[in-house]
Design goal:
alpha+beta, 16 helices, four-stranded antiparallel β-sheet, five-stranded antiparallel β-sheet, 491 residues, disordered C terminus
């Protein structure tokens, strides 16, 4: 790795280098100034820095300088230690550092006869105001959501977890975009080996561009192909703060309103912040309802075609008669209808999601009139198939974080049930269980705290007990979970 090139002692050479790096960029603002009898140059990017703020705060302090030796180092030291200018805590000494500070919105002051660059905090970046998250609605609790600016997101978490043990480490990722990535964790509750492992994996991504934590998930959790990944995502600061208190890591990326949670367990897909604000019996009922809805969305269409084609004796005579009469009017088999309707539902969903909101409602109207009513009336689709697929589709929206693997599993179970019947579904179900129970790269099972068994499963796992019971027991953290033991090396 080649050493970074330092800035020159010549102001003209430094300014020429800057122009060669960024010109012809019209938003680069370069202003020649004289400070304490020493020539200097102020450089900012318009839009990232506030020019008025820079001149009011920094210009006033610079104009009131006492007599100083006419050299750049003396002026820089005085500005750095004797004035109230809002300066960054570090001074840029290499060309790479100057580029990083400029593109981050800071102002850089270059002085003649000085190879160090003063960094002035004059950032004024426009960002979306903190508002309610759109994808994780709650009846009660906080209505704040993450925004696209990294520093604002860090402040939201710092405001909720006011502990000196909350550590925040920022590193740069993306060879072209040079995106800031923040890693937050609670030093007393998060295992230090897990922190070091995640930091090492994030530093070796080799990504050219980075705009979302989803880019980092395959590098942070390096596992073979699996439908379920031990990395979760949230846009709620209170959810991320709760995970920090449980000893997990939070990864934030500048430009994204989502936080990545490491590690993330299967049972956490069925939990929400509302569970802790309601009565425990109702929260437990809602969690069981979510588990049931997920199983229905995945298994119902496949079980329907498997039973109808291979074991029809399990159905009542009335159901068999209605199913047979519906199939006599359609040109497709029951297996083909289920595949067709599921593909149509996904096409409708994708079209409604990508269209502008002003005309997105038209997709639902067209789908209901043409795909639903008209297809049944002309005998293209059967009513039982539409009802089964609609019920499975509605259940899939109950657990939105598992929507993607749920859709793939639903189609896989339809294929298994239609081609091999109950035996095929049983084999596919065993494969899914093996996939879910696969060890996590962090040494903690993805099915924790269910397997290996932990008492936390009855306190705050599948069910939830009262806050009195949770307070009496020791706080749940990642350190409390059983970990995979490393194999001892051979002598």
């Amino acid at each position: 790795m080649q050493p970074e090139e330092r800035m020159s002692m010549s102001l003209a050479e430094n300014v020429q280098w800057l122009r060669l790096q960024f010109m012809p960029s019209e938003d680069l603002y370069i202003k020649n100034v004289v400070i304490g009898g020493v020539e200097g140059t102020l450089c900012i990017f318009e839009g990232l820095s506030d020019l008025e703020k820079l001149w009011v705060m920094a210009g006033q302090a610079m104009s009131q300088l006492p007599p100083l030796p006419p050299d750049g180092d003396s002026v820089l030291e005085y500005l750095l230690t004797k004035t109230a200018i809002p300066l960054d805590k570090t001074v840029a000494v290499t060309q790479k550092q100057v580029i990083r500070f400029l593109t981050a919105g800071a102002a850089c002051l270059l002085l003649e006869g000085c190879d160090r660059v003063l960094v002035i905090s004059s950032q004024s970046q426009q960002f979306r105001s903190v508002s309610e998250p759109s994808g994780e609605g709650n009846l009660r609790g906080s209505h704040e959501g993450f925004v696209e600016l990294l520093r604002v997101n860090i402040s939201l978490l710092r405001r909720l977890v006011r502990s000196p043990q909350l550590h925040c480490e920022i590193q740069i990722a993306g060879t072209t975009t040079r995106t800031e990535v923040a890693l937050l964790y609670h030093s007393e509750k998060c295992p230090q080996p897990m922190v070091e492992k995640v930091k090492k994996q994030l530093q070796s991504t080799g990504l050219d561009m980075l705009f979302d934590p989803g880019y980092l998930a395959p590098f942070a959790v390096r596992t073979p192909f699996s439908l379920f990944t031990p990395a979760g995502f949230t846009e709620r600061p209170d959810t991320a703060a709760a995970k920090l208190c449980e000893g997990k890591l939070i990864v934030l990326v500048n430009g994204s309103p989502y936080a990545m949670i490491l590690p993330h367990f299967f049972a956490e897909h069925f939990q929400s912040m509302d569970d802790y604000l309601q009565r425990p019996y109702f929260s437990s009922f809602i969690r069981l309802l979510k588990y049931t809805a997920f199983l229905v969305s995945v298994l119902l269409p496949g079980a329907f075609v498997a039973v109808a084609n291979f074991t029809p004796e399990l159905l009542s005579s009335t159901m068999l008669f209605k199913l047979a009469s519906a199939q006599m009017t359609t040109p497709f088999s029951l297996f083909g209808e289920l595949l067709l309707v599921n593909f149509l539902l996904e096409i409708i969903r994708e079209a409604g999601l990508r269209l502008p909101k002003s005309i997105g409602h038209a997709v639902s109207l067209v789908a209901a009139l043409i795909v639903g009513d008209a297809a049944v009336q002309i005998g293209l689709l059967g009513t039982p198939v539409l009802v089964i697929c609609a019920l499975a589709g509605l259940c899939s929206y109950v657990v939105p974080s598992l929507y993607e693997p749920g859709i793939v599993l639903r189609l896989a179970f339809i294929l298994a049930g239609g081609l091999a019947g109950p035996v095929g579904m049983a084999m596919l179900g065993c494969f899914c269980l093996l996939d879910v129970c696969r060890p996590s790269p962090f040494g903690i099972p993805y099915t924790a705290p269910v397997t290996p068994y932990s008492s936390a499963v009855w306190k705050d796992g599948i069910l939830r007990t009262s806050w009195r019971s949770l307070v009496r027991s020791s706080p749940f953290t990642v350190r409390d979970l059983p970990r995979k033991k490393k194999k001892e090396g051979r002598a």
